[in-house]
Design brief:
Blueprint: E1 9-12, H1 19-36, E2 41-45, H2 51-59, E3 66-67, H3 92-102, E4 106-110, E5 116-121, H4 122-131, H5 137-140, E6 143-144, H6 145-151, E7 155-158, E8 164-165, E9 170-172, H7 177-180, E10 189-192, H8 196-204, E11 209-212, H9 220-229, E12 232-235, H10 240-246, E13 265-266, H11 271-279, E14 285-289, E15 295-300, H12 301-304, E16 311-315, E17 331-337, E18 351-354, H13 360-370, H14 377-391, H15 401-414, H16 418-429, H17 437-442, E19 445-450, E20 453-462, H18 465-486, E21 490-497, E22 502-508, H19 512-520, E23 525-526, E24 534-540, H20 545-557
Parallel strand pairs: 1-2, 1-16, 2-3, 9-10, 10-11, 11-12, 13-14, 16-17, 17-18, 20-21
Antiparallel strand pairs: 4-5, 6-8, 7-12, 14-15, 19-20, 21-22, 22-24, 23-24
Helix pairs in contact: 1-13, 1-14, 2-16, 8-9, 13-14, 14-15, 19-20
Length: 560
């Protein structure tokens, strides 16, 4: 059977997520789960929550979404074959029949706890049948007598078939009893007919098992003597020639299976990584193991053809540069956003909802209403917090009357006094004590591109003007490093004072100072930070990255 194809759908915001990104993912996943029926939607995050978002989640006792560092296609995303594991004591014959019935060429041998012990292939079975001429192979392979009975389709007359053959050889008793005593030895398995004297001779010479062919009867005397001596008697309908040919098929697969140097993959492995390994090996099938090492199934190169990536819903972004790593291999189903249209490309048409509102969570609240789904107090609190954050409590120029209307409605459902709550939330978010330059820079950072330029913009908001001033030299030093790590042409930081409603813009990069001057008509000051090409400028009334900063920067960047 193929691996289960009913995979969960991941709902995720952008990298370095802000409050809207995380709260929108949680709320939209909840809405989809209520509407979908069978499909499962999982809220995710592409980075760690910042201080503000952590406060929101804690305040409303909401669990942080699942962290996903990449959405590259993994083994768990594709349809691999759930070939059942078998016991290493299984006979070659049963293994062959199992392969034929299942249409597979490889069987995994596993323990009772599904730990992989080895692999047996059709080729291994063919070699065993063609190349084995040793009459002692049954005992060397420690074959269980039950396997012999099943392989010969025999009836057990007496003896313990759970025993294992560990000594002796297999022979056909074709000579007279006088001759037989010279070549039957202790622990042998003797294939013979219905002659009682031959049966007695095998018994007298210490054989462990006699196999009587063509369905012949066993006399009560022979049976009684066998019971006394612990000898196994089984009767098969096959003739001696056929029985002698078949008996090697009772050997356990453990004797021929491969146990060393097995190439296995884990469900978490990325398809791009395993494809090269599979191409370099002649094996057709490779075992898949779970995180705990337990065997799950088999994968072949054929399974990689036409594989589908993770199914994703993007919220609060639509640009590839802001998306979680590996988005190009994902199957994007929906995009819910309130930003400018970016560079994302999809393999197929998607549901795309983009509205010029101050917050994605406002759109999601609309969707709850459109589908007549009630918003519970916790979800209301999360959506409200996102709107407060993105609109700076309705002060941002991105805020629309609908954002404020929805924000205040959600506050009533959540049972909070919105102005008081907003102050607590902003205070928690602007508490930067103890944080490294890197943590502060990346707590709200986004990639952008315009023309031939790629640049990044970090925004730090605070209620404390002195705190923002102290951050300037620290962030100016870090910006150059971040620009190189991210492969950017320019790097900017918005130090936004929520109370004064203005932003100190820091700029680093070749041409960044000129770009700022062209975009805002202001001459930036050279920054005394030990960083070449660093400058800063005060932008009064500018608090929105999306509406007030990115449009003019993008416009003039495209002209460079």
């Amino acid at each position: 059977m193929p691996h289960n194809t009913e995979r969960p759908i991941l709902v995720t915001g952008h990298r370095n997520p802000d409050t809207d990104s995380i709260c929108a993912a949680i709320a939209y996943a909840r809405l989809k789960n209520k509407l979908s029926g069978s499909r499962r939607y999982i809220p995710c995050r592409a980075g760690s929550p910042n201080a503000e978002t952590s406060f929101v989640l804690s305040y409303f006792k909401a669990e942080s979404p699942r962290l996903i560092k990449s959405v590259r296609t993994q083994v768990s995303d594709i349809e691999y074959r759930k070939t059942p594991g078998v016991s290493k004591n299984m006979s070659l014959k049963r293994a062959w029949n199992t392969m034929s019935e299942g249409g597979v060429v490889t069987l995994p041998a596993v323990t009772e706890k599904d730990v992989l012990e080895g692999l047996i292939t059709v080729g291994d079975i063919a070699k065993s049948y063609m190349n084995v001429y040793d009459s002692s192979i049954i005992s060397k392979a420690h074959t269980q007598y039950r396997n012999i009975r099943e392989t010969l389709e025999a009836t057990l007359i007496t003896g313990d078939e759970e025993r294992y053959c560990r000594e002796g050889k297999v022979l056909i008793a074709a000579a007279n009893p006088e001759m037989m005593k010279h070549y039957i030895e202790k622990h042998d398995i003797v294939i013979l007919g219905n002659r009682a004297e031959n049966q007695l001779s095998a018994l007298d010479n210490g054989a462990d098992c006699i196999i009587i062919c063509e369905g012949a009867n066993v006399s009560p005397t022979i049976k009684s003597l066998a019971e006394q001596n612990g000898m196994i008697i089984m009767v098969t309908s096959f003739d001696a020639y056929t029985a002698s040919r078949l008996i090697n098929q009772s050997i356990p697969i453990s004797y021929f299976m491969k146990t060393e140097g097995l190439i296995t993959f884990e469900e978490e492995d990325y398809i791009d990584d395993i494809r090269e390994v599979m191409a370099s090996k002649r094996h057709r099938d490779f075992p898949i193991l779970g995180k705990n090492g337990r065997y799950l199934g088999m994968i072949s190169r054929r399974n990689l053809l036409g594989n589908h990536g993770k199914q994703i819903i993007m919220v609060d972004h639509n640009e590839a540069g802001q998306a979680v790593e590996g988005i190009e291999s994902a199957d994007i189903l929906e995009i819910i956003d309130h930003h400018r249209l970016g560079t994302i490309q999809t393999l197929a048409p998607v549901y795309f909802r983009n509205q010029p509102l101050g917050c994605t969570s406002t759109i999601i609240y609309q969707m709850y209403q459109e589908n007549r789904v009630e918003v519970d107090p916790q979800t209301a609190g999360l959506l409200m917090s996102a709107i407060i954050s993105d609109t700076l409590l309705f002060r941002s120029p991105t805020c629309t009357p609908l954002d404020e209307k929805v924000g205040r409605e959600l506050a009533k459902i959540a049972g909070v006094e919105i102005e008081k709550y907003a102050l607590e939330m902003f205070s928690a978010g602007s508490d930067l004590k103890g944080k490294t330059d890197k943590e502060i820079f990346y707590q709200d950072f986004k990639h952008f591109s315009a023309g031939k330029l790629s640049f990044g913009v970090s925004q730090v908001t605070s209620l404390n003007e002195q705190e923002l001033k102290e951050l300037e030299p620290r962030l100016l030093r870090f910006m150059r490093e971040a620009m190189q790590q991210e492969g950017l042409d320019m790097s900017f930081v918005m130090l936004t004072n929520i109370l004064d409603q203005d932003t100190r813009l820091l700029a680093v990069g070749n041409g960044a100072e000129q770009l700022v001057e062209n975009a805002f008509g202001l001459s930036p000051e050279k920054a005394d930070s030990g960083t070449d090409g660093a400058s800063s400028v005060l932008l009064r009334g500018v608090v929105s990255r999306k509406k007030q900063l990115i449009p003019p920067l993008t416009l003039f960047a495209e002209q460079l």
